[in-house]
Amino acid sequence: MSTSDTSIALAIVAYPGVQMSAVLGLADLLSIASDYSVKNGGRGFSVDEITKADMTPPSQQYSAVILPPNLTGAKGKEETDIHKWLCDQHTAGSIMCSVCGGAFWLGYSGLLNRRPVTTHWLLDDEFQTTFPETQMHAEHLLIDDNDIVTTGGLMAWLDLGLFIINRFLGPEVMTQTARHLLIDTGGREQRNYRSFRPPLTHGDPDILNLQHWLEKNSANEITIKVMAEQTNFSERTFLRRFKAATGFTPNTYVQNLRIEKARGLLERTRIAITDIGWKVGYQDASAFSRVFKSTTGIGAGEYRKRFKVERI
């Protein structure tokens, strides 16, 4: 499918051993959603099925890259060319997505360190042994960590496809597509999708590198000085460039990011609320409670009651 100036470019990686039914199913699902969106005056998708041979530079930049599942046990440990391509895409602003065993390919690329992830429950122990720096939550169907989205189970490509449709084309198109294909969205984890969506395709590589760094380090003490040093800018230049690229002041961005991390922990863990505040970077429990309520409109305890994802 060719790419137009207004279409949203997506890549489905047909790596060696991939489950082709998932590749083709995802392509069809996204194509149907694209048609609905375009007919209603919205943007559409341009979906490419990418093989290793297609990854030679210069390579197109994609808004999202999908690693489907496989039935062959392929893990991609030796596929260093694919790892580099995935890292290059992520560095340039792509959202990296995986289904089931596709998470191993992201893991070997080094993109999942210190990130919450999921995969098929049968792969849980192997994954944690292979990638001890990740935060595995195999009891969850989908984990959205903004620029990294992972799903578990061979058929979770349906959930990932609906998630991508919802994220880029909106809930109305997602619902239309699900109805067209008779997919029940009621029991799926739509509720834990993040509401803080900072732009990643703004074209400023220095600020994008900082955004990726913040995703992994937001629990640490973060000041304007620390962030400016990460970009090698003066504080004045940093403040100007950051606001121009993201639309947020740095402090507001970090606050929103921390609250989103807290939302995820409230939804998928039983960690005490006070400890969650510490884990996301708040040393003062009352300050965390105050900021959480002002951001989400409800207290952390009420949020957990409403949106916790029951363990399987």
Please give the structural blueprint.
Layout: E1 8-13, H1 20-39, E2 45-50, E3 64-67, H2 80-91, E4 95-99, H3 103-108, E5 116-117, H4 124-130, E6 135-136, E7 142-144, E8 148-151, H5 157-169, H6 171-180, H7 205-217, H8 224-231, H9 235-246, H10 250-268, H11 273-279, H12 285-296, H13 300-307
Parallel strand pairs: 1-2, 1-3, 3-4, 4-8, 5-6
Antiparallel strand pairs: 7-8
Largest sheet: 6 strands, mixed
What is the strand content? 5-15%
- Which fold name is given in CATH as the topology of the largest domain? Rossmann fold
CATH class of the largest domain: Alpha Beta
- End-to-end Cα distance, whole Å, is 38 Å
Detailed description of the structure:
The protein contains 13 helices and eight strands. It is an alpha/beta fold. It folds into two domains: 8-188, Rossmann fold; 205-307, Homeodomain-like (Arc Repressor Mutant, subunit A). Strands 2-1-3-4-8-7 form a six-stranded mixed beta sheet. A two-stranded parallel ribbon has the order 5-6.
Based on the model shown, name its key terms:
alpha/beta; 8 strands; Rossmann fold; 13 helices; Arc Repressor Mutant, subunit A; 312 residues; six-stranded mixed β-sheet; 2 domains
Brief rundown of the structure:
By secondary structure, this protein is α/β, with parallel strands linked by helices. It has helices spanning 20-39, 80-91, 103-108, 124-130, 157-169, 171-180, 205-217, 224-231, 235-246, 250-268, 273-279, 285-296, 300-307; strands at 8-13, 45-50, 64-67, 95-99, 116-117, 135-136, 142-144, 148-151.
